[in-house]
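Hi, here's the filled form for the chain we discussed.

Project: internal
Contact: R.S.
Residues: 203
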Amino acid sequence: ALLVDDTRPGTVAHSVRHLLDAAAEVRDQLSNDTWLVIGHLDQDLAEVDHTALPTAVTGALGRVLQAMLALSGLSAESMVRDDGWQFMEAGRRIERALQLCGLLHATVTERRDAATDSLVLESCESIITYRRRYRSRAQIETALDLLLLDTGNPRSLVFQVDRLLAAAAAIPDDTERDHDRATLDALLADLAPLAHLVDTNAL
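And the returned structure, exactly as it came back:
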């Protein structure tokens, strides 16, 4: 259900279906390399749907992951930094921040163990950084510092907020939508201190 149900928001298949639909809308704006990367995603997921063998599932998901990483690299290295890129960047940062908050909400509970904290760090691509920096098993206070407040960690909450602020600032004002812009700026002004002034000890 978490992989191949494309009617359920949050699943891999749901995200891939919307990615392909969005790509089809701007087909003439995308390079051949981009289509080479994403063109087989639905087939890979269909392969997952038709097998129960763990090795087959792992292989298909590995190809999906490779495609996502390649697409991320293409957008980072090839896209012109115009309004479209800024909107995409803002969306990426909002989604990653929401995913991180949801993950921590579900896992940072009164009853946990060190293995859970390590899995959280691993799922946020931060376990190696944590081990190098703290040279210890995962502890919740330092894990939260790394995942919430570390401005140099591209997976941290403040990193997402800072990049979101930069993307929003780079999008030109629209005089016909001054009210919308004022509302956006007010929300962003509230968001920045909420993220940067988190007290991880209190949490």
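Let me know if anything looks off before we file it.
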